[in-house]
Design the sequence.
């Protein structure tokens, strides 16, 4: 007999044999308590079960074996709960971008109303009246760079309308883009940023009948894109041909005037956000492969996005869904 094994005998009809099972030495038979301690030590937290061994020789013996209690658990029992949790996480919206944009808009509003220079309020009112043609010819020549900035801001409103309708519409109920576009004609990026905070892709489906109605027929027209790009080139050329003294004067205006300072900051914000909305519109039109070369050009203020609006494929060239209900603008 081996010191590390015990002999378990089995009664068989024919032939008789014995099976050696490795285990710790059995305790003395007359000490029941010692036997229980050894059995607990062998199992060590494992549950004991019995199974009958049968062979072609009609085994009559019964062996006791230990099974890990963890093996009896079904590991798939918790899967439905895990899957539900993962599905919930997948449907939750990431609000990080919206929070950052809202913080940016709040900071900009504080800067515009509190921190911007405001040394010449009366002159600002005079400049505004001159730019709106509310004052006649009084012999004062307006700064050419300032005039160019004023007109390019009006062109930016048309450009953003062409980028946000229809591909920039929000799928969130109750959030329509057109009120923000109307306000952007007066407030520029300061009026569009709240929409950027609330915007949620993808855009609602578009009916084919909408392509021939206002305002999409105007915004999708190649003639509109040509006029927009030509006007932008003319305005930029008018400012570029100004001499150094005019640019120096404009820089001084930005340091003193709230009106000019805020307007130039508005132009910078619109130029910064334009490449993203160009890419969003390009993705909606499925033109990312052929038109990816134009994306680096969109960092050029106004002219880059205007060039994209001229070259982009029309909505009629991409698949357009025909839902039973009309999507929100």
Sequence:
């Amino acid at each position: 007999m081996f010191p590390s094994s015990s002999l378990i005998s089995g009664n068989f009809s024919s032939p008789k044999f014995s099976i050696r099972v490795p285990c710790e030495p059995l305790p003395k038979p007359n000490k029941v308590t010692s036997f229980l301690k050894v059995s607990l030590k062998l199992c060590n937290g494992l549950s004991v079960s019995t199974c009958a061994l049968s062979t072609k020789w009609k085994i009559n013996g019964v062996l006791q074996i230990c099974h890990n209690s963890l093996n009896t658990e079904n590991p798939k029992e918790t899967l439905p709960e895990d899957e539900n949790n993962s599905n919930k996480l997948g449907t939750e919206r990431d609000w990080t971008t919206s929070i950052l944009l809202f913080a940016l808009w709040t900071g900009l509003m504080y800067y515009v109303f509190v921190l911007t220079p405001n040394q010449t309020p009366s002159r600002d009112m005079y400049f505004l009246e001159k730019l709106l043609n509310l004052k006649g010819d009084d012999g004062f020549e307006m700064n050419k760079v300032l005039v160019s900035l004023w007109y390019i801001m009006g062109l930016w409103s048309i450009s953003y309308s062409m980028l946000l309708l229809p591909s920039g519409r929000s799928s969130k109920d109750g959030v329509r883009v057109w009120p923000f576009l109307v306000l952007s004609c007066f407030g520029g990026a300061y009026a569009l940023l709240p929409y950027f905070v609330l915007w949620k892709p993808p855009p609602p489906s578009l009916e084919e009948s909408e392509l021939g109605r206002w305002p999409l027929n105007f915004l999708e027209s190649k003639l509109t894109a040509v006029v927009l790009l030509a006007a932008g080139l003319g305005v930029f050329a008018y400012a570029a041909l100004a001499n150094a003294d005019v640019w120096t004067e404009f820089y001084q205006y930005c340091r003193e005037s709230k009106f000019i300072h805020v307007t130039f900051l508005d132009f910078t914000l619109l130029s910064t956000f334009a490449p993203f909305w160009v890419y969003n519109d390009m993705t909606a039109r499925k033109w990312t492969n052929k038109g990816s070369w134009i994306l680096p050009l969109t960092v050029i203020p106004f002219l880059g996005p205007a060039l994209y609006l001229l070259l982009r494929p029309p909505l009629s060239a991409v698949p357009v869904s025909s839902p039973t209900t009309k999507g929100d603008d």
